[in-house]
Fold these 4 entries.
Entry 1:
Amino acid sequence: MKQMLANSYLFGTNTPYIEALYDAYLSNPASVEPAWRDYFDKLGTLPGAGNYTGPDVAHYPVITSFAQRAKDGTLQASAHATTQSDAKQVKVLQLINAYRFLGNRWAQLDPLKRSERPAIPELEPSHYGFTEADLGQVFQTGSFAAVPDNATLREILEACRQTFCGTIGAEFMYLSDVGQKRWLQSKLEPLRATPAYSPEEKKRFLVQLTHAETLERYLHTKYVGQKRFSLEGGEALILAMDQLIRTAGTVGVQEMVIGMAHRGRLNVLVNTLGKQPSMLFDEFEGKKKQALSAGDVKYHMGYSSDVGTPGGPVHLTLAFNPSHLEIVNPVVAGSVYACQVRRGPEGKLQALPVLIHGDAAVAGQGVNQEMLNFSQTRGYGTGGTVHIVVNNQIGFTTSDLRDYRSSLYCTDIFKMVEAPIFHVNGDDPEAVALVTQIAMEFRQEFKKDVVIDIICFRKLGHNEQDEPMVTQPLMYKTIAQHPGTRKLYADKLAAQGVLGPNDADQMIKDYRAALDEGRHLIDPVISDYHSKFSIDWTPFIDVPYTEKCDTTVSKTELQRMSKRLTDIPANFTLHSRVQKIIDDRKAMGEGKLPVDWGMGENLAYATLVAAGYNIRVSGEDVGRGTFFHRHAALHDQNREKWDVGTYWPLQHIQENQGRFMCFDSVLSEEAVLAFEYGFATAAPNEMVVWEAQFGDFANGAQVVIDQFLSSGEAKWGRGCGLVLLLPHGYEGQGPEHSSARLERYMQLSAEFNWEVCVPSNAAQIYHLLRRQMLRKQRKPLIVMTPKSLLRHKDATSSIDELANGTFQTIIGETEKVDAKKVTRMITCAGKIYFDLLAARREKKIDNVVLVRVEQLYPFDDRKLADEMKKYPNLKELIWCQEEPLNQGAWYAKHHRLSELIKKGQTLNVVARPASASPAVGYAAKHTLQQKEVVNAALGIKE
């Protein structure tokens, strides 16, 4: 008997043989040879194998154990292992495995049939040495459930091709979880990826296709030349959405948030969410009530409804989305996460994100990688997203794959999170329905992402005014000859006897008649359903903008909060630097030390959670704080395990408090900020805070700021109370660590769309954060936060200022001056104030007063006017900023300041020279510029 090591076919790529035998043994021990059964019976004693039982065991230790024992010479091959027949058996299992891995490459996926089948030797029997004579030989099939345990090679080959090379091309063998692979195999292989639907179900599929196609053609003739980004060629999406919602309802989903770009959006609105066609027609005809100051085009609009499913009502929401395509995806994820948190332990099963992608965008836009990267993290994971790709094989204008993407499939990006991918021919409605059902069930079973890639085509151009023949002549000659998915399926059902000769045409006539009346033929919407988890936005709608709000909390209560914030559990060892901070905070609460910024911020959160508000803080390194200032999360120096080695004082303020969540995010700005925006729009009663590591890092999320935060209310009526903390200040740290690009937020400021503030001390940030939640208005808050000022003695406050004060939009002169001597008033914001103050003290200047503008937008010009009136001999008003002249707040504020100038007064600006870069990179040059700015503002000549 030779050692197993000598039998090379038991190693390397041939391990499927052992794995298949082991699968068969697990299912039925009597189905394998006695010698192998004896080995498997003893697996609990094999080194490295462990004591595995049940059908979903890990196989890698088994294979590793066999290999190790063979090398040690302690494992002998069974007598049957050396036969020629057994060698062929191994190759049969290799062939099956090859089809599982590569069969999708031969699948009949393209409705246009434009691609030649690639040469893949591993899928040919001859590659393994089989001849025609072998086709009738019987082999074991292992775990391949498409055939009996023993079948001829001909039967096995036929089953492989039908299962993996039909109109469904499944990719999932790269999954590392054996249980997930086996589950997917159990769903596809017994059916041979060929479902058997009832006549009623088939008619329902045809109805969905008919409604999808007819709506597009109706709009095309009724509103000639108007953009609508037609779904024609991809009508299977509507069928997939119907099947998804029906399946979701049966597996426990109660709420679904959908994100998609403009392609097919109008069709989804009407035929999936049940928007009345008459409402859509009014939008085409410009009859819609102009309720918003800006509004948006119809193919960006969102909608929500409640629809009935076999498993109960499901609330559907289609998220608003600009033309930035995939940017809505993390917004949807954030919105769903908020719903899940609200629903409690079952939230991830009850609320579902669904994202509809275009083939070019899903592969081309980096926000998808960012989102997938956080999809399984604790602060951002939603328990899996169902992704549907409307793959029209053309993107926007490109048809040459050399210019389209670098990967084989547009969906390859999803492999980074081991999401199974179902490629499916959009011309096979039943296959689309099958993979949609499997995908939905997989998501619920394993709580991870899953992908449906509907390969279809785009009948018209990028929009209805485009001429695709200019750039894709051959493709569009083929499309012109395609009868349409609905027609193909109707003919198939007629041939099967499912439909009568005129039934399909009658479906079209009935639906067109309903459209003529502006109504649905079949209305999926439940009008009287109300979920207990729905959010009432009524208290926050049409609330006039106000700055006034009582943010005071008694000194006694603040002292109690301070004690809770500094009461660390016994046997919890802090780092010495952190222990010093906690000790100082304890002294701050007792009034022995002034309150610094970090303590002021933490006290704001503490008082809010004590009042029952929920708080979520996220961003890169927010638990500790980039500048070692927040310490909302404390880490035991002797324990690393997350659940016992980390302590959040704000989660232990009192019983029955609000929830405090603090998550250090992945290294991403765009997707994370979009996520937080989505969360905030779904949770108006919660404070949601995103902090940039440095303020200018928000540059990477500019599309979120431009398209959602600043304009979401004007375009879509979407309120949002998201707080952005952006560290800002010129301290010689170079172009990327100085400026939060204040000018960008100032340029976007209009219509009371948000607030832009630069608080300069602990009391100000305390009252500002409390004001954000206590007022009945939900607008974004942009905060330019400090860096060096976090520990500056002049930026501290007394605990009395927290207890009795309020947020001051403008802080006038705080030192004693002779008002009659004052001839110059310097207005400024942020750190430059403290540089000006230090220089004025040093030079003993008595004719200049310093006024801090703490809220740059909306600008409190009346308060500044009152400050100016205090100085009867005032001759000059100066705006001083440390940013370059073409940046900062000057260009957004100079017209408001000029309106305050009286006869005999002048307005001037002092700033760094205009610059293409946000800041200089040379420390010496920075210091010189800073000194020049301060001296010029104060009138110091050197």
Note: The first strand starts at residue 138 and ends at 140.
Entry 2:
Amino acid sequence: MGTEARECVPERPVRQRWARGLQWAPLAALTLAVLAGAGLWLAGRRTWADWLWAAATVTALAPAAWSMLRQLWRRQFGVDVIAVLALAGALVVGEYLAGAVIALMLATGRALEAYAQRRATRDLRALLERAPRTARRRVPGGGIETVPLDRVAVGDRLVVGPGDVVPVDGTVEEAATLDESVVTGESRLVQRAAGEQVASGVANAGAGFGLRATKSAAASTYAGIVRLAEEATARKAPMVRMADRYAAAFVPFTLVLAGLGWWLSGEFVRAVAVLVVATPCPLLLATPIAIVSGLSRVARRGVLVRDGGSLELLGRARTLLVDKTGTLTAGRPRAAETVVAPGGDRDEVLRLAASVEQLSPHVLAAALVRQARERGLRLTDPTDVTEEPGRGVTGRVDGRLVRVGQLGGELPQWAARAAERAELAGRSAVWVSDEREPLGAILLEDPVRPDARRTVRRLREAGLTRLIMVTGDRPGTADQVAQAVGVDDVLARCTPQEKTARVREESRRAVTVMVGDGVNDAPALAEADVGVAMGATGATASADVADAVLTVDRLDRLADAVEIARYARRIATQSAVVGMALAVAAMLVAAAGRLPPVAGAFLQEGIDVVVILNALRALGGGLRRRDVPPDTRELLGRYAGEHAAVRDVLAALRDTADLVATHPDSPDCLPALRAVHGRLTGRVLPHEAAEERQLYPALAGPLGSDEATSPMSRGHVEIRRLVDRIGGHLAQAGDGPLRGDQVTDLLAALYGLDAVLRLHLAQEEEDYFSLPD
């Protein structure tokens, strides 16, 4: 069995090479026929040459006529009519060389189209070929068994060996080094810590590791991508509508001009010459090649578009409707802030909550556990865990009873203020308590994607004039997100039916794109001219009905797709218009009797080569984004990672400001001030100085100039000024309590620094850290 498997490995590449060779065979045969005929003609055997050229003409005429008849049977009238008439006319008047050259031209166009199709579908075929078929599963009694992928169930413990493709979505049980380039487009190896989620389809680039399945094979990320890849087709259909629109005017014009040339001169050969130079290769082949090239490019950017018609519509879009949760926002909550009771320990509160929540399947529990692990906190296995739906989880951690969830009864003053702060900020509060009292609250938020605002700007620059956010969330939260990303209108508390109705209404005004990620978005995606699903997190109903799917969890790839679609459509239109304009000029000359059929055939061949080469320009260009050099990417990753530490300082800064505001005479006030000032000078200011010295100069190239980072440099100046101002007050206070006249100015510095630093971090994450692919 093993020998047979090894012997079969090279068969597929051999078959593929034979298939590719056969696709070029008609072009090679016709080229040989034209050249052989030319040799016979030069040798004086002109009858044999004519027979050979006539045979080449008939070889091309038969399939072209059959294609035309099938179109007419379906009551479709296209540009194939001209090609058939030109070939038949060349045979009737005895212009066999002209007919052979037309046949060669059509074969050249078809070969180039097949090449562009292969290039467009190469990435999709690669997805299918590397799809895992089996998985290694741990046996309860010990040992490992290899099972078919469809037998893997949620909760199974798997083993992913070196070089293996991760078979299903799951949680890694120990540190892993992964190559996620196929799924995410990220070229660098990625380190995943124990407990982190990984998507199926990524490759193990390090030692083997354990994986606990969180989804079945059919529901996993890679299965969804493969299903979409099977449906996505790079076919000739993309520009059928455009070609037929042009054909509606071009074909009658050609026939009338050919008839006039024949009627006015009495020479049928003039009509044939007109038909020869009118052979519409720019419509039949050049325009589909441009669109197919666009399909190839968006596939490489992590966007699967089902067909060229959808890409053409995406290039004409003027209105965008976009869902909020999971599209403009990350779609999974994160712990934004931990508020603790007076004298409490923020890290200990988070550790207790995450320890209890380790066994809970709730999405909020996953956020707490992830946050604790990112902070390097040691989690303890809980005991006596019980979960009450809607109320929370209770368990013992190190013998201590801990409750995580909702809080009933009257709240202490600090807890009431925390609840009010969460409500104002649009955050969810998860309370952590022991047997006696609440210990703290963890405020969770669904953060706006760092690349969302940049993506909205790029979409406007690409030509979208109306951007609307539709969401089922509360108006207050929806308005905050809308202001952050810069959309034109907001529709909050929106049901799936209302989303669909709004899409239908907008589609009546202009070509409309709908972007969403959830099952509730599926009806709206199906209703839109172009539905785009955020499919990177797994296969959902939204991905099944969408016209395009983002297989990478980055919203900016939507802007990439729109820019590429517009560019490909512009190149396609340009190829059609320029090619037909040149053909019309040649037709007029042919109708006047100045261009014989043979010369017209060679001239048309030259026109076709020009427009096809122009169409292949769609394989590059069009993107507005600048490439980020690898060294700059490394710097961006490093400083983005340091933001977590800066946010920790921000949390302490806010707590200290609250303490100064409420208890300026407290003996804990000055020590807290000195501690937070020490963290500001020891951690935040060095981070800002290093950015100024290393990161900002490196960004001058990708951003276009040194001036692009000057507003952020001004932010660094303000941050240092406020830190120095806090230090000045500490120096004045000495060992004694704060004076009354100091409190007001100190509070202005503390709260001002909190606001400036938060804004500064958000701007860096949106404008700089979202740059790399």
Note: Confidence is low (pLDDT under 50) at residues 1-14, 232-241.
Entry 3:
Amino acid sequence: MQTFVLSYNSEENSADVVNSIVGTEAFWNVGITGQNTKIANIELGVYWNEHYVFQNSNLGEVYVPEGVDVSSLYSSHATGTAHILAGYNSDNSNNFAYLASLGIAPSAELSAGAVARDISGERVSVELADFYGVYSHFFGKSDVINSSWGPDSTLANNVFSGVIDALAANNTNTVMVVSAGNSGPGENTVQSMALAFNVISVGVLGNANSYDSIADFSSRSPSDFYNPITKETVKSVRPAIDISAPGENISFAVYDPENPDSKDLFSWSSGTSLSAPIVSGVASLMKSASYSLAEAYGDAYGDLFEKQRDARVVKAILLNSAKKPSDWTNNQTLSSYTTTIEMSGFSITSTYGNVILTTQGLDYVYGAGSLNADGALKHVLNLTQSMYWALDSVNSGSSLWYNLGLVEAGKFLTSTLVWNVNGEVSEISNESAKIDNLYFSNLGLELWTVIDGSHNLVAVSDTEYNNVEHLYLKLATEGEYLLRVTFFNMAYGEMPSSETYAIAFSVIPEPSFVAAFAGIFALLIIFRRRVLR
């Protein structure tokens, strides 16, 4: 059965189901609808919980600045994004209304946070202390935070992104997803919190209902990079979009303060505000699947599933499973590259020729590509050499290897490396924030092949200004392939003794799941607790 949020094409006067386009039905078909997860929707205001679409939703807490009446912060914008996240009304007597009421993760517990004290004016002000108070309240206790708002600053050193990075670095169990903004098509138009490094920044796919190209209005990179140690800004060097999702002509629930008894109002609109909660909902589904796996397998896999829910792992898998639009590029070129291999207590530095090199990693417009929930689920379930993820730590001045085994020529390899920028908020006021322990490790991602016992460098992702490395290439020759994560230098700050990162990779076309996970779909259905009727 098709469900979830609808996408409307006014020219054809037709509606399609977004979840069919992004592949979330793969989760639903095995009983994963967001159960056991908590989503916090943090906006300027809060959703109106009396709307039809929330009649059967699992509604959590509402958290607003002290002394503010919640009813004064009811927002149509927040109502719409919350609906996309976790709307659920089980009354299917009106099929259209039923389908339109279901969010991406309708079994998730849906909470709300508001950072503003007054949303009645055209320009809404946000006090920094309130901002920090609301986000710090939900970081660590939520599986996913969605934010489809943000100050319109494109400054790389904006205080909001700095605070978010610090909170995310110290609460890695919480995935934060942020809309990139609607200020495209110019470069350096990604705004505010989407410029944080430790979030998933979302662009907008247009051309409804195909969603195969970027929307003109979607904000995009390259963005500026700010070094908080030297106080220097490097212009137009950073890919600040992580992934793109449908956000054109999307339906959503509406709150009308002039008609407070109208509980079934819907509207259509476009924007990154609508693409971000679609990604957030899929992140919730990924975590929900992991909780179900842990419930099904108990301690048989140790802390594997806890690691799987780490924000860096979720981000790495989402980016690695993304589909590549026809005009996607991270500007890979053939180049020489110098790197160091540590062997038996000593190191050898060599220069290799004809290396496929990207110093950009992600596409400036699409990020890793378009959201692919079906591919993300395959990563979550599959632990074979064809598709894999890991949460590991690499010591400073060293590297870690991953053996992909023998791979046939002609297959496509995708690999994504994600780690966090570090910081800790030590002081906060309405005027400023003090962030200590700032450092940014500069990890690298390399692809090697072994020929006649000799290691040969094939491809490298080496971005100086981002915390995501990404490779996507067709393998020209058959051979034994290896991935290597390196940690030889810093973007800024003092080098820590080690850096924790997530890595995901896939080699396609991929084989069937291994026997250990062959019956997982049946197990997930058995362990399903909240079934939509």
Note: The mean pLDDT is 88.
Entry 4:
Amino acid sequence: MAHELITSENGGPTPRRIADSYVQALADLDPLTAIYLGVNLDDDRLTDLSPAGSDALADLGRRTLAELDAAEAAGAADSEAERRCARLLRERLTAELAVHDAGENYVAVRNLGSPVHNVREVFTIMPTATEDDWGLIGRRLARVPQAIAQYRETLAAGIERGLLSGPRQVATVIDQIAEWLEGEVPGGWFGTFVQDAPEALRAELGATAVAATDALSELRDWLAEVYAPAAADTPDTVGRERYARFVRYWTGADLDLDEAYRWAWEQFHDLDAQMRTEAEKVLPGSTPMQAMKWLETDGPAIKGEEAVREYLQGLMDGAINDLQGTHFDLAEPLLKVESRLAPAGSAAAPYYTQPSLDFSRPGRTWLPTLGRESFPVWDLVSTWYHEGVPGHHLQLAQWTYVANKLSTYQVTLGGVSANLEGWALYAERLMDELGYLTDPGARLGYLNAQMMRALRVIVDIGMHAGLDFPADSPYRAGEPMLPDAAREFFGLYCGLSSDFLDSELVRYLGLPGQAIGYKLGERAWLQGRAAAKAAAEARGEEFDLKAWHMAALSQGSLGLDDLVAELAAL
């Protein structure tokens, strides 16, 4: 597919058409992204993970910005819909190019969302219903060794340039790959995956899986023997300049980091007080940590992986049934969302994957089981309101549904993490406001989730920007926010497992700036709702929350620089 610019009837391009032309071209250059979009379904390639592949994507971004410049100069952004799309496209591509031009593609060793993670995880969303589907899987699986070689080429170039990931990332990824290599059948995770293939293809696919796994094994050994020694003295944190660049990428805003840090500490103290009140209801005389530990070991729990998958499916189905027509007006395709178990070796956090553009692949939530057989429910309820309904699923599936009224770009590639995660955290709060979290254990789980997001702002900004614990901190006041201290502080005030918190710390160090978008994004959504409600009341009108929700979810992606004003005007 060539980058062929789609034009309007009068022969001139518009921002929305330029944006969608960009999506088409990027899907051709980046087959992994195409799979998530549900396009180019017969393409059996994997993305070029070499430096040349990254440069080609950057060149596409620069050409697209030049086309946007010309279109705006010609007056093509002549409506609010076109102006909104143009703002988003320019901001996103500029932020992405800033990250690329700083050489961050050479530092792509991290425990979540790295190129090698994406190569593996893409197989979990490919269709598997027919023999032809498995044939396509086999052809793509045969390309895994080449993709891993390209990824290694990029990392080797990073070593030459002095651009390396920190030791914690390297050690974690080595351990993750080691887990992928394990399995009862040859070929590790890939070998287990192809066991579900039709019998006629199973032997061939099994051999292909072994070759892919051998390439992973070689990558693990190279990371341990070559990359890890080279990265041994690399700081785990990125410093304020790099951090600010990542904050723009993840939030769509140039945030005042010191203000955000102070605000997060205010949230910490408020949530700590609320959690102490709720803990007393769960276990009289206990602290929040004691109450959460009791809930984890002695509270209600679901036994077995399939049982917990069904439980989470029931939570989402029940939320859709209750909210439809009362607080949301959902089209039929949005009523289906699937609960799935995440593949072994995933990071510890649950996640959601968006439906394909034609809804042939529904939205899905994914629970990493981490080898467990018992699943306490106290912290699952609000989490699935976040990941599923009314969280990520309602926003991302609604974006998909209205793509033809906006642009494909605005509802897919142009997504701003802080907008997405802010809505999902708002969704948790909404369910609390609507009375769905009255059970003391479930509400303590919700408050703990809010505390986790406040702590993320504190430790992420504190570590990377080199800040100190403030004077009113109950822990090491006045001392620097170093990773080990941040991990200990996090564990003292967040009732999640040690393994989960260890994974979280590595995540923050590997994706600087991403974790702050949850709480800061929620703040923007709440500010926008409050302003819209105040404006309606000033006009003498009753605020229609359902109408506001649907209008807010139908405007596509926005960065935090634009979100509050746009929400206030609805």
Note: The chain has 24 helices and five strands.
